[in-house]
Amino acid sequence: MLLRSWIWCLGYLACAVSNVVGWVHLPNSTASQGIATFPSFDYEDFIEPFYNLTGLLLPVVVTAGCSITVPVPPLASLDTKHEYNSTIVVLERRNMLRGHCHTYQSVFVQAPQLLQTVKELGYPPVQVFLLAALLNSDENFGNSKDEYFYDFESTRPPNIHLALIGKDTGQLLWTLAQEKGPIPIRVVQDPGFWNRFRTSPLEVAHIVFRYILVGA
User: Fold this and answer.
1) Which residues are bridge partners to 68 per DSSP?
2) Is Signal included in the keywords of this UniProt record (predicted)?
3) Under the phi-then-psi rule, with left for phi > 0, alpha for psi from -120 to 50, and beta for the rest, what region is 181?
4) pLDDT digits (tens, 9 = 90+) for 121-164
5) CA 20 to 30 Å from 88, out of 14, 68, 75, 180?
């Protein structure tokens, strides 16, 4: 099944194509070094409005006591060749756990502080949160049995898109954004495997059949 969402990254990595979110263009890289893609999906049963955004990727670092920081220099101090209208932030599970943040809900309640910090550093508005899932990118992550409802939707920041990425992808992008600085990235919305499955003719027929059996 061909998906519309992609993450591409150039250079530094030997990456393979998979079902996927947006693209990551790494500094000092060339197209001849190859393009990498990583899967990114909407959370099951919560399909995002379609978006196709290009911006700068910033890492959110969680420290002791579940405090969040964005350890990047002011945008004005960077030698950027392009203007960007969006900022995209990435959260990484292991870093969250080390800082005693066990759910994304704990980070979302601090979103106003995070958005203000990004604004004060001169970056464009944050429009996407890339959230590392509990499963890796080679698994069908994003289902409600693995990712808890309250972990996403109940305290989500307003006017912010949420995109799930594999746990391994989160580790990779979070580390790169810390080591290389803000990374140009393009993120394209994709409903993902589980939302496609829920609306597939086979699953709809299965649900109808179960209701018929219960009502009989």
Assistant:
1) 62
2) yes
3) left
4) 999 999 999 999 888 877 777 777 777 656 666 788 889 998 88
5) 14
Spatial separation of the C-alpha atoms in residues 5 and 39, rounded to whole Å: 7
Question: Rounded to the nearest 5°, which phi and psi values hold at 214?
Answer: -65, -35
Residues contacting 88, CB < 8 A, separation 6+: 22, 53, 55, 56, 57, 58, 126, 127, 128, 129, 130, 185, 187
